[in-house]
Amino acid sequence: MSNPIDNFLNRITMYRLVLYYLIVLVLATAGLSYFHLLNYDPVAVILSAAFLYFFSGFVNDFFAKIYRVPANVESVYITALILTLIVAPAKSVTDFFFLGIVAIIAMTSKYILNINGKHIFNPAAIAVVITAFFLNRPADWWIGNPYMLPFVIAGGLLVVRKIRRENMVFGFLISAIFIIVGSSWINSNNIITSLSQVLFHSPLFFFAFVMLTEPLTTPPTDMLQIIYGILVGILFNPNIHLGNIYSTPELVLVAGNIFSYLASPKEKLLLPLKEKVKIANKTYDFIFPKNNLSFIPGQYMEWTLAHNNVDDRGNRRYFTMASSPTEDNIRLGVKFYEPASSYKKAMLVMDQNQEIIAGQRTGDFTMPSDRNKKLVFMAGGIGVTPFRSMLKYLIDTNERRDIVVFYSDKNETEIAYKDIFDEAQQKLGIKTVYVCTEKTGRINDKIIVQEIPDFKDRYFYLSGPHAMVAGFETLLKNLGMGTSHIKTDFFPGYV
Fold it and tell me: Which CATH architecture group holds 268-362?
């Protein structure tokens, strides 16, 4: 069952998936309201959603032009639809005026409440916090009801699967439920009633799947994300208060955002293209100035490229830095397939000095701190980029590690960065096994056993297209490798 789901998720960007998910939730609330299962006017739900959707886009375009940055249309509409689901539907002109104020604050926060271009707060959360304090109009979080729960959970699990935030979400849910149940027990309240209330009549799951996982305001590494989830879960208890200020979902998220900002990289770079070099069939290196960027070999960033006629895959992608931190430039290795997205088409025709925005440096796909661990790098296609970064770093620092590389691609013309692999072999003794599938077929158990007799003592790093990585993972598990010895690379929203 997981393969069809993962195949579907691999064909859609993270932002587009969340957008469709929220649209379904809005339509479901309107439908349930029509059948009187929810106490709202279905016309008011749709009109409120449409107003927020288009007005937020207008406000964001205005600020994007002032600040001269590309408008990330999907995130704008995602914020608008989140506001639709947490602020009560408008019933009057005054209510629409209030929705307009909320939208303005949310969109403005993206440009003003940031440091060096990096968001500090979730736009929807900070907007309803501000209106609660200054206009005495807190968010209703009306999405939290038992009739909407199946829709919230079904779509939310797809989102979490797509962005691989299971550990963070699980940590949040467990800590939130534990604290709320514990608080009920201490205060001699009915635990079953409290548990029912938080599970079926609160925005717990919507908050976890949609708000907590917002990528620009979550920490960069798995461990920090787990801490973030647990911290926010502890604060989610509505009985927590500071004087007359009680815990609300929006306040909790804003507090968590501050922790995330302090724990996250702060860079957001506007980089001009220096050079574009063809390195293999349909594969190019895009070279940008480094601008003092600090990163660990194997990490990736979100790259925003403004272009016309943006298709449904959006104007953002996640790319690993193929360069080493020891080099003076940033290299992005990109492979082009047909049919290409509007992003890829625009990237392929980039002119020298044309600018791209890089931010949200993140990723745990890095070499272990223990240099004595024996490693195997398994790359499929352009998944070789993190390994190019790692090997170049080892070469430049003359750091010796016991590594064997498997590089699988269609044929010899598809092989990229062979010069680096050859240099690693010559200087560090790192062997690369090239597997051209047109000639020899895919990597199989016989090849692994033959080339690496001590494979059970090694740690495997897998990077490439999702289907190929999943195949590698299954192959290794069939050979008896435990999950603790397998590390996979992942790019949220990348297609």
Answer: Beta Barrel (2.40)
